[in-house]
C-alpha cells in the first residue's frame, strides 16, 4: 500500500473535510472545538456538507482532492473511502473502523466514575444502566459503570435492547417502562446519553414511577435542550466536547505538516455533573422521610414552612429533625431553603426576571430577604451570580470530577 500523502508544502490554506453530523448537540460541540482551533491556528479551507451519523460515503468524497479529514467513522464503507484518499485522518469514533487513524474521543471510564460517584454521594444502593447496544461507546460506558458497582459489592441491572424495535420508538419506551417496573426502588439509572435519559423519563411517566423518588436518572452530554425539556429536567454528565474537537484539529494539523504520530486513542475526560431535578434527591428507605422530601421538593418554592410540613406528614418536630439529620445531615428548614436556593439559581441563570419576581417564584417573602439568604448560602449576591453563573450554577449545579483538567 502506498504511503499516505501529507499536505503539500505551499502557502495556501490546507483543504480539510469534516465528516461529522450536525444533527445532535455532541457533534455540533465537536465542530465548534474544531472551529475554535481554526480561528487561532488557521486558516483552513473547510468542506462541511450535510451528513448524518452512519451515512454511506458522500459522492463528492470519491474524487475530493484535499489534505486531511476529521470524521466520525461509524461504518466500514466510510473507513474504506477514507483509506482510499491517502490523506491524514483523525477519527472521533470509538468503533475504530479505520485502524490506521488516531482517535480522539471521550473517556468512558471517567464518565462512568463520575456517574457512579454522583449516585453514591446521594445514598443509592441499587443501580441500573440503560444503554444502546449498537454503539460501542455505550457498551463501554455500561461496562465501566457495572465494574464500579460490582467493586462496591453491589449489583447493576442492565437494559437489553429487544429485537425488532426501532430506536426511540413508542414500543421501545414501553419495553423500558416494563423493565423499570421490575427494578428495586429507589434505584439510580445511568443512561448512556441524554436522548436515552429523556426516553427513560418518558418511560417512568408511563410506568407511574416517581422521579427522582423511585427512579433517579442521569444522562451524558448535557444537551441543554433535551435536559431542560425533559419532565423533570435531566441531570447529565458534562463532556469536554469542544476540547475534544480542538485536540482532533491540533492532531490533524501536525499530521498534515508531516509529523508522525501513533494511531492511538486520545481520551478526553469529562468536566463534571450538571445536577438537575432528575437526581436531586438523597435515596432513603424510610417511607415517611421519602414523603417529606417529596413534599419539600414539590412545595418549597410555594412558601412551605416546617409547621405546614408537619401537618402534611404528622410526627413530632423533634422526631422529624432527628430523622432528617440522620439521612441528609440537614434539618427540615435547611432542606427547604436548599431547594429554594436551587430554584433561584436556575432562574438567575436562565431568565431575565427581576429579583422581586424570582423571590415570588421561589417562595421568599421579598427580594431583600432573598438577597440576604442567597448571599449566606451561595457566598455572593444574586447580581454577581447572574453575571458569573450563566453557564454553570455555583454550589450544587455541578459535581466536579476527581481529576484535574489538563
What do you see in this structure?
This is Transcriptional regulator, AraC family. Pfam families: HTH_18, PBP1_XylR, Peripla_BP_3. GO terms for molecular function: DNA-binding transcription factor activity; transcription cis-regulatory region binding. Keywords: DNA-binding, Transcription, Transcription regulation. With 406 residues, the chain is an alpha/beta fold. The chain has 3 domains: 15-105 and 241-268, Rossmann fold, CATH 3.40.50.2300; 108-239 and 274-279, Response regulator (Rossmann fold, 3-Layer(aba) Sandwich); 287-390, Homeodomain-like (Arc Repressor Mutant, subunit A, Orthogonal Bundle), CATH 1.10.10.60. 45% of the residues lie in helices and 12% in strands. It has 15 helices and 13 strands. The chain has helices at 25-41, 76-85, 108-120, 136-151, 170-181, 194-207, 224-229, 241-256, 287-299, 306-312, 317-327, 332-350, 355-362, 367-378, 382-388, and strands at residues 15-19, 45-47, 68-71, 89-91, 103-106, 127-130, 156-158, 187-191, 215-220, 235-238, 265-268, 272-274, 398-399. A 7-stranded mixed beta sheet has the order 7-6-8-9-10-12-13, sandwiched between helices. Strands 2-1-3-4 form a 4-stranded parallel beta sheet, covered by helices on one side. The protein has a two-stranded parallel sheet with strand order 5-11. Helix 1 (25-41) crosses helix 8. The chain starts with 14 loop residues before the first strand and ends in a 7-residue tail after the last strand.
